Amino acid sequence: MGGEEKVNILLVDDQPGKLLGYEVILSELGENLIKAGSANEALEQLLKNDVAVVLIDVCMPDLDGFELAAMIREHPRFQKMAIIFVSAIQVTDLDLLRGYAAGAVDYVPVPVVPDLLRAKVRVFAELYRKTRQLETLNAELERRVAERTAELAQANSELEHRVEERTREREAALAQVHEMRKVESLGQLTGGVAHDFNNLLMAVLGNLELVRKFLPSDPKIRRLIDGAIQGAERGATLTKRMLAFARRQELKPETVDVPNLVDSMVEMLRRSLGPGIQIKTDFETDLPPTRVDPNQLELALLNLALNARDAMPLGGRLTISAHRERIGASDVPGLQPGDYVCIAERDSGEGMDEVTLKRATEPFFTTKGAGRGTGLGLSMVDGLVAQSGGAMRITSQQGAGSTVELWLPVAEAEAIERPRPVAPQRVQESRCCRVLVIDDDPIVLAGTAAMLEDLGHTATEVGSAEQGLKILQSDASIDLVITDHAMPGMTGTELAKRIRRKWPELPVIIATGYAELPGELDPSVPRLSKPYRQQDLAAVVAQLVGEQPAAEPAALNAAVG
Ligand SMILES: Nc1ncnc2c1ncn2[C@@H]1O[C@H](COP(=O)(O)OP(=O)(O)OP(=O)(O)O)[C@@H](O)[C@H]1O
Ligand SMILES: [Mg+2]
Question: HEC profile for 57-91?
Fold first, then answer.
């Protein structure tokens, strides 16, 4: 049987001698032979065992073989079992039909031919075995299909989940890009507007100052003029903020000791925030210096403090702290890995809801109502730290206060503290000289010329660098050149280079309205920030054409506000 499972064969006959005879014949098949001497016994055995073939004697005393077969067939479990009839009497065609109707599958006539009986039983036993094997295989197959289907369903749902996740990530990235583009174009627009506006303010301020000088000193008129000057100065502060937000302000980075800088501001902050707000500072010992424009950092910290004040109308506490931290990849968005000084201003104010927090750094976003906030405070601070190689991070919760962190790069070890340039305070006397003034904006040009003439100098006005060069070629009496930087055609920096090559002794001052691209300006050329006042102009002229020219041509800043 080749290791194959044996099947059961049930032999039913009322004569023990005949049963024995079948047993002898069939034992050669190597299957299990079960004997039953009556119909009852046969049914009992059938219920106990899984039977492949039943061999039934048609004529038994207490039960007709056909009846037994019919009973067997009625049971659903036995419907596929093979029933072979053994018949001692002559079987008529009618009997045959009755037998088949009762469920027989075959007949064996008496006298039994052993080979025939064996052959028939073997075929059915084999059929039964194969059917069982097939069923087992089928069940296994179904199990595997079910298993595989479950695996596929799982993989499918994982895939769907991943697709959803990726889609969400992509949408978030797109939204970020969109936001960045929006801020960038707003920055360009703001920068452009601020630049032109700055020039206009320059003319307004310059002319007002001259008007104040020339008019009789009537206190009424003075008050009006002073009001106009104050208004123009406020406008200049606003343009500065706009330029800062657009990351186009002129920065003068220095090595700054943050605790020193903050300590020197605390008194001023106390006065600005009022007695209801307690100010605390907390600095890590041995904090390394950072590199940033100290004036702009002060302005930024003041802006944050004012925001804190506005968030604490009933008073509270403002803590300014600083610590050093090494940043790894992607610890703080927008920061390159490296060493930073983190300055934090934490308030105990009303905090921000999610929408406000999200939009807080957006330029012109304010919750303070028209006329109370410009919405440029945080954008300016953000612009400053970004332009200084750092980043800003705001955390806030409604009702639980806000913290604004400014991350600024640690100054290189070899950076040497330079003394902060002292803005000239008094108008210095200088000899009268001939100044060539170059600006493509006629209003600014006229304003500067008027201020110079009022100081006793002679001004020659031209609208382009090219025209300026022509004048210099024909007029050797020019003592000084004051030129705008951003002009169509040749820029002020390019002009300064040419002048230095051809007339190395001739001093040149570049007047700039906003920071040009880094490296675009020659740091050795003295600069004057627009809008400048007459006293700034007087000071720089005196410095450059006076008896003792300045050893280091400092960038002279006349920042308003
Ligand atoms: N410390 C803070 N606590 C709660 N809300 C704040 C804080 N700082 C900023 N905000 C919110 O962010 C908004 C934008 O601030 P931002 O400084 O840019 O402009 P502003 O303060 O409204 O105007 P300006 O700075 O010109 O006075 C504020 O209007 C306010 O809603
Ligand atoms: Mg503000």
Answer: ECECCCCEHHHHHHHHHHCHHHCCCEEEEEECCCC
> 116: CA distance to ligand 1 center in Å?
106
Q: Is 330 helix (H, G, I), strand (E, B) or coil?
A: coil
> How far apart, in whole angstroms, are the C-alpha atoms of residue 6 and residue 29?
10
- Relative to the CA of 362, which ligand 1 atom is closest? 18
The residues spanned by each domain of the chain are 8-112, 253-409, 434-545
**Structural fold of domain 434-545:** Rossmann fold (3.40.50)
Q: Whose CA is nearest to atom 29 of ligand 1?
A: 366
Instruction: Return d(Cα 173, Cα 72) in angstroms, integer.
Output: 75
Burial class for 142, CB neighbours closer than 10 Å (0-12, 13-18, 19+): exposed
8-112 maps to which CATH number?
3.40.50.2300
What's the pLDDT at 553? 35
Q: Architecture of domain 253-409 in CATH?
A: 2-Layer Sandwich (3.30)
Determine the pLDDT at residue 443: 85
Ligand 1 near 308 CB (within 6 A): yes
Tell me the residue type at 552: E
Q: Are 118 and 28 in contact (CB under 8 A)?
A: yes
pLDDT at position 522 is 65
Q: Residue 293's closest CA among 421, 484, 397, 395?
A: 421
For 94, 131, 138, 358, the CA distances from 306, given in Å and listed in that order, are 116, 90, 80, 20
Domains 253-409 and 434-545 share a fold: no
Q: List per-block mean pLDDT (blocks of 10 residues) for the chain, which spans 561 residues.
A: 80 91 94 92 91 87 78 83 80 73 80 92 92 92 95 95 94 84 78 81 88 84 87 84 73 90 90 91 94 90 94 95 88 85 96 93 86 85 91 94 96 53 46 90 88 91 95 91 90 91 91 59 75 86 64 35 28
As given in the structure block, the two tokens for residue 136 are 């087992």
> To test ligand 1's pocket by mutation, which of 319, 378, 396 has the most ligand atoms within 8 angstroms of CB?
378
